[in-house]
Design a protein that fits this description.
Blueprint: H1 14-19, H2 38-57, H3 66-81, E1 93-95, E2 102-104, E3 109-110, H4 115-126, H5 136-142, H6 155-162, H7 166-190, H8 195-208, H9 217-225, H10 237-255, H11 262-273, E4 283-287, E5 290-294
Antiparallel strand pairs: 1-2, 2-3, 4-5
Helix pairs in contact: 3-8, 4-7, 7-8, 8-10, 9-10, 10-11
Length: 297
């Protein structure tokens, strides 16, 4: 936007005033340059969002159903923490040696990847006297690194203490849903995927992060789209998910060679090979050499 022009001198020659209305050639400046205004762009984005919401509303609930969300939470927890009891992980915290600093909570919030900082900032805004509040300056400083500077000693104990508070447990669930679950399920539904595809997207969002780098969720999706159409585009669901999982596996190995990929090989591919697109129970799979089961509802 051009800065506003103010005439401070009374009696300015008319030609100067006219120059504000007409171009140098004397032609009147067009009132519409053909470029969308910011308000029009926002309205357009809002319209697109509304159309997508309407499209999603016409679909079955999928993982948005509480019972299905519980199954997805147990599946992700089996791969992340080797337990189906994801609620036991609120107070869990450790440095796994992956270069992301401390990993903690129900989906592995990391001190090096912004999501832990996001969680603690929001929790502290609502509950200023919580045990983690004194560590916020250090969390901001180490974000983007694997450093513990300013966090040791005391941060791990503070996390465990905070996890005894129902408000912090709720904050973890809200952050999980806002950053990972809801965006993943929404995108999966727009891509025409059923519960299995929605879970695969959710797991990938948690594991790789919601970014568009080659090893981030959106980058992986773009790589899959280069080789296959989504169901919404007329593609085959099994073919698309197979290609997406292959891209996800490559992203895992790109981060660290030799890393275990059983969450794809003997877990997600097991469901896909069985054609269980509805993620119907009973479910049985192996991850990291351990067998898990979810009985029939």
């Amino acid at each position: 936007m051009k800065p506003a022009i103010r005439l401070a001198v009374i009696g300015v020659p008319v030609i100067i005033v006219l120059s504000l209305v007409f171009g140098s050639s004397g032609d009147e400046l067009p009132s519409d340059t053909g470029q969308p205004s910011a308000s029009n762009e926002k309205q357009s984005a809002a319209d697109i969002r509304a159309e997508e919401d309407a499209e999603i509303a016409e679909q079955p609930p999928g993982l948005s159903d509480p019972a299905m969300k519980e199954i997805a939470s147990e599946l992700v927890s089996s791969a992340n923490s080797s337990t189906l009891d994801w609620r036991s992980r609120y107070g869990a915290i450790e440095d796994t040696g992956d270069g992301l600093g401390y990993t903690a909570g129900i989906v592995g919030f990391c001190s090096g990847t912004s999501d832990m900082l996001d969680l603690v900032e929001r929790y502290t805004a609502a509950h200023p006297d919580n045990p983690l509040a004194p560590f916020l300056p250090a969390l901001r400083k180490v974000n983007g690194s694997g450093s513990h500077e300013g966090l040791d000693p005391g941060f791990t104990d503070a996390w465990k203490l905070a996890a005894q508070d129902e408000a912090f447990r709720t904050a973890q669930e809200e952050t999980r849903d806002r950053l990972y679950f809801e965006p993943a399920v929404r995108q999966a539904k727009l891509d025409g995927l059923g519960p299995l595809g929605q879970y695969i997207y959710y797991d990938a969002m948690v594991l790789h992060g919601p970014d568009d780098s080659a090893t981030g969720f959106y980058g992986i999706r773009e790589a899959a789209l280069a080789d296959a159409d989504t169901v919404a585009e007329g593609g085959d669901e099994e073919e698309y998910l197979d290609i997406f999982l292959d891209a996800s596996k490559k992203a895992i190995l790109a981060k660290r060679k030799g890393r275990d990929t059983s969450r794809i090989d003997t877990m997600q591919m097991t469901f896909l090979d069985a054609g269980n697109f509805k993620l119907a129970t009973p479910l049985e799979w192996r991850v990291y050499g351990k067998t898990f089961r979810i009985p029939a509802a």
